[in-house]
Amino acid sequence: MNLLLNSNNAEEEILPAGSVIFKQGERADFAYVIRRGKVSTVVKNEKRIYPIGIIESDGITGEDAVFSHSIYKYSAVVLEQVTLVKIPAKDIQQYLSDSPDWMAILFKELATKVQNTIEIISQNKIQDDTLFGGNDFSEKDERLISKAIS
């Protein structure tokens, strides 16, 4: 599914492995469509990193924080070179404000549920293979992510 077919100002950007797309705690100014490549989303709590998920082709990340007008509750780190598109939060929020009221409420509610789940994972130090698509961090990926978000 091509999420950007109707976007006039969507520019692709290429980032190498080890790049940080955004860090936990930063203000959410963009959502990101991952066109190609592989991104890991993680929560850092004390000295541990907890996997949230892997985003690949035509996946999106950061949208939950944009929908709820908040900060990113997790970090997104490039595992394999990615081509991505940054969608400004103001554009998304404008689209939602032009839509029926129920749509903005729906997206904000879904985003809040996602963010609450991420906070539970972090606060309770939960690590489970199923959270990361059944895959553990490889040692190489864990070193790359740790270095990137330190």
Key traits:
150 residues; alpha+beta; Jelly Rolls; 6-stranded antiparallel β-sheet; 4 helices
Describe the overall structure.
The protein is built from four helices and six strands; from the N terminus they run βββββαβααα. It has 150 residues and is an alpha+beta fold. Strands 1, 2, 3, 4, 5 and 6 form a six-stranded antiparallel beta sheet that branches. A hairpin with a 2-residue loop joins strand 3 and strand 4. The protein starts with 11 loop residues before the first strand and ends with a helix. 30% of the residues are buried.
CATH homology group: Jelly Rolls
Return the structural class: alpha+beta
Low-confidence stretches: none
Question: What is the count of structural domains?
Answer: 1
Largest sheet data: 6 strands, antiparallel
Per DSSP, what share of the residues sits in E-state strands of 2 or more residues?
25-35%
- Average predicted confidence as pLDDT: 81
Helix content: 25-40%
Task: Describe this structure in a few short sentences.
It contains four helices and six strands, in the order βββββαβααα.
